[in-house]
User: What shape does this take?
Amino acid sequence: MSLQILIPDSILQAIRLPEQRIEQELLQELAVTLYAQDFLSFGKARELAQMDKYEFGKLLGKRGIVRHYSSPELDDDLTYVCSE
Assistant: This one.
């Protein structure tokens, strides 16, 4: 399943970005917002933003958005590190 969002030309023209950057910037904004509201996991949000883990984490930090990190995730990370 995929989704297309139609944005009126008047809105696209009002966005103060070069035309070739608009789609990527909108995807990043959507990804950050959905992650911040806990609608998407970090992995899925960075996938939507089309960024690697480091880049997306840096973007979240720049925006002041705290990473969601649960106890089970910590346990998984510790198990992984201890098995190395």
Summary: The chain has a mean pLDDT of 92. The chain has one domain: 20-83. DSSP finds five helices and no strands in the chain. Residues 19 and 25 are 10 Å apart (CA to CA).
